[in-house]
Design brief:
Helix content: over 70%
Radius of gyration: 28 Å
Strand content: under 5%
Largest sheet: none
Oligomer: single chain
Length: 203
């Protein structure tokens, strides 16, 4: 009788342990899903930003075409700017969107994902090292062309407009560089956050 009682108690304990393990497994799955969802959310704004860049490219091309005609800038200057913008947006797409897929957020690929995220950060640094000097060169080039191509008999209003445009371009360039650096820093922090979440999940 005592043996049967002990056996029954043992079975109850085993059953309770099995239920407890099942609950832990379910909780672990829920936690993994929440962390993976959080990782995707951390990177989602970067995708939106790149898509906005792509959509805004035709508008920039049209707007700067009008400025080019007004300031008598060369087609070479215009082509240089468009080339830099296209290369920059293409690089943004390759670095920030096509480099990661949904499969990279699965539990089995997270170690590889850390490598990709680290590589992504390094490529962004290289991109910035080429992008900012190219824009500075283009701005200086545009200012010189605008002054050089300004007719001597131009009206005072037209002269003042060109000078104001140059000053505005300098101010805009400084503001643009500051904004670009802030966006760059936020992207890098997003990668760091996802890497931290992956390390927590693996732990």
């Amino acid at each position: 009788m005592e043996n049967n009682q002990n056996y029954t108690e043992l079975e109850i304990i085993r059953s309770q342990m099995a239920q407890f393990k099942e609950q832990l497994d379910k909780q672990k799955i829920v936690n993994e899903k929440l962390i993976i969802k959080s990782m995707k959310s951390s990177m989602s704004w970067i995708k939106k930003f790149v898509y906005i860049e792509i959509c805004s490219l035709p508008l920039i091309a049209i707007a700067w075409l009008g400025i080019k005609m007004y300031a008598n800038l060369s087609w070479l200057n215009y082509g240089f700017l468009m080339t830099v913008l296209v290369i920059d947006i293409f690089a943004d797409y390759r670095i920030n969107i096509s480099a990661l897929s949904d499969a990279d957020y699965s539990r089995n690929n997270l170690v590889t994902t850390i490598t990709k995220l680290t590589h992504m950060k390094r490529l962004r640094v290289i991109q910035m090292m080429f992008e900012i000097p190219a824009i500075v060169v283009w701005l200086v080039w545009s200012g010189i062309e605008a002054l050089t191509h300004l007719p001597a008999e131009a009206f005072e209003f037209e002269q003042n407009s060109i000078y104001a445009g140059i000053v505005g371009g300098i101010i805009g360039a400084i503001g643009g560089i500051v904004l670009a650096y802030r966006i760059f820093s936020k992207m890098q922090r997003s990668n760091d956050e996802v890497i931290r979440q992956i390390n927590e999940l693996n732990a």
